[in-house]
Amino acid sequence: MAVRTSGNATLLHRSVREDIKTEKVYMAGMEEDCFQSFLHIPPDRRTPEICLVAEKLYPDVVRARPDSIPEAVRNGCNIYTLGNLLEKACGERFDAGTVKRVYEGKPLRVKQFTTPTGVMNDTVIRFSKENSRFQYDQPHKNRMIKRGMKP
């Protein structure tokens, strides 16, 4: 309750037990209008999911302070990097909940998906954590537009 009303600065007090400082509690302390709540989370506690939510809530802060995202999160295969990759491949923005569902293997229908061989329209994609790859199914195969070729 304290982090919901006062943000994550509440957790900086020495009297707060370490076992209470969980990802769920830190997420509850992040508000849309209070970017300091993200910055109050110790860097070693900034999980990929917390960083993804922070990037969605405070894009200007994350852009201005790229060091606020730990290097292990930025360079790992995780929900944070999947969110960035997904937005580049699809050309649209997704909320953190959608990225989380895709990361968990749930299908997502997208208008456009860029692959190494071309652009696919009206595609259903899935992400496999095991091999860190996208799987895609195109209901209408004739909608594929190869790069460098006319449709």
**Helix content, binned percent:** 25-40%
Quaternary status: single chain
Low-confidence stretches: 142-151
Q: How would you sum up the major sheet? A: 4 strands, antiparallel
Query: Strand share of the residues?
Result: 15-25%
Number of helices: 8
Q: CA-to-CA gap between the ends?
A: 56 Å
Mean pLDDT: 84
Radius of gyration over all CA atoms, rounded = 18 Å
List SSEs in N-to-C order: HHHHHHHHEEEE
Helix-strand category: alpha+beta
Shape: elongated
How many E strands? 4
Molecular structure report:
The structure is a single chain. This protein is α+β, with helices and mostly antiparallel strands and 151 residues long. The chain is built from eight helices and four strands; from the N terminus they run ααααααααββββ. Strands 1, 2, 3 and 4 form a four-stranded antiparallel sheet that branches. A hairpin with a 4-residue loop joins strand 2 (118-128) and strand 3. Helix 4 (48-57) packs across helix 7 (79-90). The longest helix has 12 residues, at 79-90. The radius of gyration is 18 Å and the shape is elongated. Mean pLDDT is 84; it is low at 142-151.
